[in-house]
Amino acid sequence: PTAPHPHPFKYLINNPNLCKRDPVYLIIYVHTATGNYKRRMIIRQTWANQKYFPDTNIRVVFVCGRTADDNPSAQAALEFEAEQYGDIVQEDFHDSYKNLTYKGVAALKWISLYCRHARYVLKTDDDIFVNMFTLLRHLKSLDRHGVDNRGLLMCLVWYHMKVMREGKWAISKDEYPDDHYPTYCSGSAFTMSTDVA
User: Fold this and answer.
1) Are 15 and 82 in contact (CB under 8 A)?
2) Fewer beta carbons within 10 Å, N or C terminal of the chain?
3) How far is residue 70 CA from its own chain's centroid?
4) What CA–CA distances, in Å, run from 6 to 16, 65, 106, 136, 190?
5) Binning pLDDT at 50, 70 and 90, where does residue 40 land?
6) CA–CA dist 87, 78 (Å, integer)
7) CA-based end-to-end distance of the chain
């Protein structure tokens, strides 16, 4: 059987060697947009900076789609940034709120191809601040207690959430006819074992 959507997008920017050095304990993928340079810099300089975790090998990858075709300077700036930091992956889908699922699949596909040996995966957005000290302490506690990390998904769970019909997150009855969503993980941040990716 064919996949409902085969994710046929190509890499405009790829950094396949990001996870090559040393074993990776945690790969962090961050949903970002082309123009969010300042947000990415804050993350690189603060909570995802390897210097704060000398005993734990972490990597961060920023994932985005393509810019509007009428903004070649934004694309050139992103390519320059990718060359500088080596931590950006961009596919050729149009980067929009409605295409967030493409971004998520792009990240999971990239991890499956280039960082499958990482022990854990953290997904977050570029407007989220992660308490890495707490997260790493928790993950290492799981390891110390011999918890099998296969099939692991840790998140804030939303139960019986009402479907919004107005505003930024509006979904029409045609798109989703039920009044409540099934149980799901909050998209702001979640952690999984790499086999889940």
Assistant:
1) yes
2) N
3) 26
4) 21, 16, 11, 34, 24
5) very high
6) 11
7) 21
CA–CA gap between residue 94 and residue 88 (Å, rounded): 16
Residue type, 147: V
Q: What confidence tens digit (pLDDT) does each residue in 65-93 have?
A: 998 776 789 999 999 999 999 999 999 99
Nearest to 74 by CA among 36, 104, 103: 36
Q: How far, in Å, are 40, 41, 57 from residue 54 at the CA level?
A: 21, 20, 7
